[in-house]
Amino acid sequence: MRIIRGMVYTEKMCFEPGEVAIEGERIERVERCEAGALTEKEAQTYILPGLVDIHFHGCAGYDFCDGTTEAVRTIASYEMTHGTTTICPATMTLSEEQLLGICAAAAAAVETEVLEEDVPLKDVLRGIYLEGPFISEEKKGAQNPAYIRTPDRQMLEGLQQAAKGMIRMVAIAPETEGAMDCIRECTGDFRFSIAHTCADYETARAAMEAGAHHVTHLYNAMPPFTHRKPGVIGAAAENEDTKVELICDGIHIHPCVVKSTFKLFGAERMVLVSDSMMATGMDDGEYALGGQPVTVKGNRALLKDGTIAGSATNLFGCLRTAIQMGVPKEEAVRAATRNPAEAVGLEEECGMLLAGRRADILIADGEFALLEVIKSGRAVKA
């Protein structure tokens, strides 16, 4: 048995002095202790759940849409060793044939592949986020307009079959032809996220009432929130069942807006995502996203026309940036652990430190620098 002591992120969504006992792959117990019982070093050590990234595209030189076992393994390994112990990588707007191949490749890989320290890939890769092709051409962002199409239940079911049930979120622009019907008809089988959209307030509100209870990278690829046209952002703020994503890489969203959004929606509805692309963890240079060339300098990734093309920051980096922007660390941690797990139906598996749960644990110092990653009870980075 291993016992870790420090400031533990508890089910109260706050840090309390305590200890976490690990037995095999599971958490044996989580107990509070008196602050005076911790050593000085332990009192400056944070113990939190492994992060959950439900929306990103790649890292370490690979894209999930490469559709290969090597890509899936490399992406999962990088994420795991950098603090994101549960992932739902995202596809791009591609042809149906390509998407079928990507879904099938991921489903096949989780059945056989094993990562560092004998961690099964299936314990890390827990879903797929379908970002496109059911989006608005006007708000396509870095998506390829050649493959945009109207929502199609038959296509969704075919992709889910190829993915062997791994698709956990479907991005959709509710104002497009057939989108609202698709949401109403499929909401029992799929989770929908409003994304890459020109929807006005009324349309967004109707989509949420129909079952779309998530918003993809809030503020990006949607109309702005104004006093006469509240749009998707205003509708989401009103609908208490709706969670919203935020990319806190220091590029996509101004710090003032990040802090204001946490106040507007409340910590319980915020989901931090990295939206990272293949250049994450790599040097500056020329890369690709969805088949389109991307230039990366620092943590800024741009298409040739200057459009932001995802981020070059992993989720732990986004978490630290959010805290540095002024988001309370307790709220930022919740938005990178429990909330994303809930958003994709994994709340019984990950996102919290509870007895009986898989031991996915991060240890960080007082500045929130990552010291150690524990996945399924195994130290995968120290």
Explain this structure to me?
- The chain has 382 residues and is α/β, with parallel strands linked by helices.
- The protein is built from eleven helices and 21 strands.
- It has helices at 40-43, 69-81, 96-112, 153-162, 179-186, 201-210, 231-238, 255-265, 315-325, 329-336, 338-343, and strands spanning 2-9, 15-23, 26-32, 46-49, 51-53, 58-59, 62-63, 84-87, 128-130, 167-172, 192-194, 214-215, 243-247, 270-273, 285-289, 292-297, 300-302, 308-311, 361-364, 370-375, 378-381.
- The strands form six sheets. The protein has a seven-stranded mixed sheet. Strands 15-16-17-18 form a four-stranded antiparallel sheet, with no helix packed on it. It has a three-stranded parallel sheet with strand order 9-10-11, with no helix packed on it.
- Helix 3 runs parallel beside helix 4 and helix 9 (315-325) packs antiparallel against helix 10 (329-336).
- The radius of gyration is 20 Å and the shape is globular.
- It starts with a strand and ends with a strand.
- The model has no long low-confidence stretch (mean pLDDT 96).
